[in-house]
Every structure is written in C-alpha cells, then in structure tokens.
Amino acid sequence: MQAESCYHLAEGYHAEWNYEEAFRYYYQPTHLALKTFTSDCFEKILKIHSNDHELMNILANIYAESNDPDKRDKGKDSLKKVKQHNAQDIDSWIQLAEILEDVDL
Q1: How far apart are CA 82 and CA 103, in angstroms?
Q2: Tens digits of per-residue pLDDT, 25-71?
Q3: Which of 5, 34, 43, 63 is the most buried (most CB within 10 A)?
C-alpha cells in the first residue's frame, strides 16, 4: 500500500515536471520492499538449510526490526534457537532482550 501511494505521488510530480520530487517518490518504494524481499529470500534458504544458525540469526534480526508482531515472534523464536546452539552469542542475547522489552507483560 505504501509503495503504491509513493508511485501515485511520483506520477503527480512527474506530470507537474517536478522531476526531483518525482524521482524521490519513484525511488522510495525500493527501500520499502527491500527488507520484505530479503526476508523472503532468507526464508527460502532456511527451508533448505534448516540448521544454519548464522542464517537464523540474520533472519531474526530482520524480523526484530519489523513492526509486524507475528514477524517479531518469529524473530524471537529464531533467536532462542540460536541462543541454545551458541549461548556465548552476545548479539543474539541483546536482540532477544530488545524484542522481549517490547512485549506487554
């Protein structure tokens, strides 16, 4: 929805010959979709390499930054698996703490 809105704004600026603003709005959706595209790719790879803890950690970090509660839950579950595999991974502990910090108790 956000990407489509940006596109329509860009078309409006383009029609007004304001190419600088048009370019800004044409370009913006590429950043909106990047994390979704990236997480989709990592999910496909994770289906093949289901025990790759480094991949789980990367995907969990992407999910942790999401505003979607379901994705944040996926990130939390992945970080718990990574933590069980390598309890010394401080970054995973910190990321898990940040996710849990946002949970209403």
Answers
A1: 20
A2: 777 766 666 667 677 777 887 888 887 777 787 788 778 777 788 88
A3: 63
Q: What is the pTM (predicted TM-score) of this model?
A: 0.57
The full length of the chain comes to 105
Nearest-angstrom CA–CA distance, 61 and 82: 11
- Distance between CA 104 and CA 88 in Å, rounded? 27
Tokens at 25, concatenated: 């709005």
For residue 34, the model assigns a pLDDT of 63
Please give the backbone phi and psi of residue 44, each rounded to the nearest 5 degrees, phi first. -65, -40
Q: Which residues contact 22 (CB under 8 A, 6 or more apart)?
A: 10, 11, 13, 14
pLDDT at 81 over 60: yes
Fill in the DSSP letter of residue 102. Answer: T
Residue position matching structure tokens 């383009």: 14
CB-based contact 28:6 (threshold 8 Å): yes
Cβ-based neighbour number of residue 67 at 10 Å: 6
